[in-house]
Amino acid sequence: MRVGLFVPCYVDQFYPNAAIATLKLLQKLGVEVHYPTNQTCCGQPMANSGYEHLTKNCNSLFIENFAEFDYIVSPSGSCVLHIKDHLHDETREGDAQGIRKKVYELVEFLTDVLKVEKLTASFPHKVGLHQSCHGQRGLHLSSMTELVDQPFSKPMQLLNQVEGLEIIELTRPDECCGFGGTFCVAEEAVSAKMGKDRVEDHLMNGAEFITAADMSCLMHMEGILKRKKSNVKVLHIAEILNAG
Amino acid sequence: MSTTSGIKHPELSDIFNRDEERVNWHDDTLWWIRAKRDKAAHSISEWELLRETASQIKDNVLSNLHNYLVEFEAKAQANGIVVHWAANAEEHNKIVLSLLKAKGINQMVKSKSMLTEECHLNEYLEKNGIDVIDSDLGERIVQLAKEPPSHIVLPCIHKKKEEIGQLFHEHLGTAEGVSDPQVLTETARIHLRETFLTRRSALTGVNFAIAETGEFVVCTNEGNADMGAHLADIHIASMGIEKLLPKKKHLSVFLRLLTRSATGQPITTYSSHFKKPRKGQEMHIVLVDNGRSVQLGRESFRNSLKCIRCGACMNTCPVYRRSGGHSYHNAIAGPIGAILAPNLDMKEYADLPFASTLCGSCTNVCPVKIDIHDQLYKWRQVIVKEGHSPAAKTIAMKVMDFTLSSPTRFKLAGKIGRWTLKNAPFTVNNQLNLWFKNREMPTPPKESFSEWFKKNNK
Question: Which residue windows are coiled coil (chain B) (predicted)?
């Protein structure tokens, strides 16, 4: 099994540890991971701003980098969802459709493809799990409070395998953090307020760390935490699953 | 009555957010209603099947709208109801006015109708010498405050009881400082009772109209539609053309969904069926298009017409809860307003589809399964293509495309960005950076992942 590691642009530049943990975790689990060094971005920031027509170059670059792999895995539910929903290329439409079917967010790749049942990680801390919207409502990484459905959670399935980790309960288990891509500056007031409220829920319930399957939400919440001079830290779920 | 005047959602939200305590109160109040909705939905094991059924019935209605409208018209006429057709808001308002004038009536009582808000009927009638009193308590409160409703089901949800007390003191003569809901409601009741007894004309909205029988159903919790309609000489019902259901048996699906989605109640206190005028009464229905057939022709957006106006998408929307209904500067606020409004005026409402993080919660609570957040995404594309996006944003996006199209340029830009954050943070951490207003920038790492990879994976 040849897996292409897709590292979202902002993770590459600002959160290399999340990508390193993803790579090491996959290697630890015996996966042959390749990192195409010419990758940039999935194009979502432009598409969500209404400029999907400007993502053609990003799309062809993505296909060029990833078409050859059996699976494409990324530590970001949001970027994966964008590829799954919107990757097109008139000249390589077959490859585009193929990628849409074989691109996975890290957590779902671990639970659904590798069927990981036992991890050797240890993280003796109180952790709050933030359900990133695109991972949850888009990729169905877990059940959603709005729907009448059997409860399940793929991130929890993995976090439960981490020794010493204690999950805290949240008052609102799946509310958006307010990042929303360019929304975070275009709608600054509401975005920041949503971020503050989400962080407060974790703090009130005693989290030492906040984790998620999406670094963008964590980046947003980290910005709020630092402004509050809080000691609570954010960590991508890969860093916890690969800890100890 | 407009509270805006050209100011857009981000600015209006910014103003709303200056009083953080108030935002917290507004958010908690609506979240409480969302929680009640969840409880009601989870108490019905076939909830998702109900949603799917309602969605399919409405799909059928939209695909056969012409036939159902013609059938409804014929049946309603046979029942003795006069049917009028209005292509737009202006025609609707003129029809209502002419019906009142013909009877020499200059006072009207109105129960809740979002359609009349959409058509700005109150202002029109007032300009033409007709005194309108809204009989839904929430609507009456915003009417006294000279404000538009901020929510389609809970028109005065943005007002605290103390503010309502002050309004009642000014307009209805309660003692100053009284804010006990029991006292205020009783005062409104006495005031409206007099209105019901003296008004000769009543206008109601329509929640559902049945093609098979020619009847229509009005759902209220206060019984105010019935009080108005039963005592008036002339009952006018304003109805959007999408409100149809094929058969009476379909109604049960929608009555089970409507109020559970809206407020978590099993059903509205009153679900009143109007089929024919009582002896000596006139009953009129005004069927209003006002952009609906245009929306029906937009493939990506047509199913927004399935909406039954429950307001669940507003209650769940984390943006709506923290920006308030007036920030949408449209009769219908929230996620559903944001996908309906651009159809009416794309330029004026170009901001609304962007007032969302695309979290998708709206789509999940929608009782008729409108793909609201996908339509928000699609509207963004249309709005940009039609040229309603700010020029600066277009330039920024082109620069982004230029940078991200080339791995070399991307790596260089990243390097410059990280260097700047580390060595000249003042160029980023300042008032020009909207992120920085309430959030710290990420700490730049010493190397990017790709730099690390180059060193460590040879």
Answer: none
For A9-22, write each residue's pLDDT tens digit: 999 999 999 999 99
Is any Cβ of chain B less than 8 angstroms from the Cβ of A24?
A: no
**pTM confidence score:** 0.96
In this predicted model, what pLDDT tens digit does every residue of B288-314 receive, in sequence order?
999 999 999 999 999 999 999 999 999
Separation CA B345–CA B171 (nearest Å) = 35
Best of B346, B365, B380, B438 to substitute, by most chain A Cβ atoms within 10 angstroms, is B438
Locate the domains of chain A by residue range. Answer: 2-113, 126-241
Residue of A148, A174, A220 for testing the chain B interface, max B β-carbons within 10 Å: A148
Contacts with A133 from chain B: Cβ below 8 Å: 357-361
Largest separation between any pair of C-alpha atoms in chain B: 92
pLDDT per position as a tens digit, A177-207: 999 999 999 999 999 999 999 999 999 999 9
* Confidence at residue B301, expressed as pLDDT on a 0 to 100 scale: 98
- The topology under which CATH files domain A126-241 is Rossmann fold (3.40.50)
ipTM metric: 0.97
Considering B290, B314, B348, which residue would you say is the last residue of a domain? B290
Helix axes A77-86, A93-102, angle to 10 degrees: 140
Beta-bridged to residue A3, according to DSSP, are A33, A71
B-contacting residues of A 161-200, CB under 8 Å? Answer: 172, 174-176, 178-181, 183-197
Range of the domain at B434: 392-456
Please say which residue of B231, B262, B290 terminates a domain: B290
CA distances from A16 to A11, A12, A191, B365 (A): 6, 5, 25, 37
Query: Based on the domain organization, do B277 and B420 belong to the same domain?
Result: no
- What residues of chain B lie within 8 A of the CB of A174, using their CB? 361
Distance in Å, alpha carbon of A65 to nearest chain B alpha carbon: 11
Q: Least CA distance to A65: which residue of chain B?
A: B407
Domain count, chain B: 2
DSSP E strands in B30-136: the ranges are 82-86, 107-110, 131-134
Nearest CA of chain B to the CA of A52: how many Å?
A: 7
- DSSP SS3 for A121: coil
